[in-house]
Every structure is written in C-alpha cells, then in structure tokens.
Write a structure and sequence with these properties.
Number of helices: 0
Strand order of the largest sheet: 1-9-8
Order of helices and strands: EEEEEEEEE
Number of domains: 1
Largest sheet: 3 strands, antiparallel
Bound molecules: FE2/S2 (inorganic) cluster
CATH superfamily: Rieske [2Fe-2S] iron-sulphur domain
Structural class: mainly beta
Helix content: under 10%
Number of strands: 9
Shape: globular
Distance between the termini: 20 Å
C-alpha cells in the first residue's frame, strides 16, 4: 500500500463498516464527478474508483450494490461486466482485460483515508 503524504485526506469509513465480502460506495470529492467504492474480503480492503473502464459509468445498480450474488465479483450495472475483487481485472463483458482503477489509501486511527482529490 502506498503511503499518502500530507494531511489533505478524506475519511471514508472504518474497515469494519464494510460487511465482509461486500462493498460500500462513496460520493465524489467536492467538485468531482467520480465516486469511490471500497470492497472488503476479511482483513483486506481495496478502494477503486466507482467508474467502469468501459464507458465510465458508476458500477453500482443501487447505492452500495456492487457485488455479484455470490459475492465473488464486482459487477458493472450498465452492461454486466465482471471484475476480480483483488485486482479489478475485468474477466467478462465489453471491457474484458481492462482494470478498475485502484485508489491508494491508508489507515489513520482505524479509518480508511484517501487523498482528498481522489476521483477528480
Ligand atoms: S459501462 Fe460497464 S460494462 Fe459497459
């Protein structure tokens, strides 16, 4: 995990706020258009831009609904592309082989923090 420099950070949530095997969405930074999503598998949390590499639409079909029914994949609501949780690689759909964009974060006092301008 890359270390973020400085104090210009945005708090997302605590890891335990994300149900294990599921994901939460977060709004764009002020002035931005692209939200974020954080997915948790056990002790592992990964933050991605909430933007499909196909045409850039948000991934969730309802707030915080990012996952396949079996919770194995992140799904794009627009055309149904499936992404690996661990690395964001699209394994089926129109953007097969492309990746979701990871967002660096760090834990500060138990809270997931990203750069304040993440997604801008
Ligand atoms: S916008 Fe995500 S698969 Fe088309």
């Amino acid at each position: 995990m890359r270390t973020l420099m400085g104090d210009d950070l945005r708090d997302l949530c605590r890891p335990q706020d994300i149900p294990d095997g599921d994901a939460l969405g977060f709004p764009p930074a002020p002035g931005g258009f692209t939200g974020l999503m954080a997915v948790r598998q056990g002790e592992t949390v990964i933050v991605y831009l909430n933007s499909c590499p196909h045409i850039g639409t948000p991934l969730d079909w309802m707030p915080n609904k990012f996952m396949s029914l079996d919770k194995r994949f992140i799904i794009c609501a627009t055309h149904g592309a499936e992404f690996e949780v661990a690395d964001g690689k699209c394994i089926s759909g129109p953007c097969k082989g492309d990746f979701l964009e990871k967002v660096p974060f760090e834990l500060r006092d138990g809270t997931i923090c990203v750069a304040a301008n993440a997604g801008l």
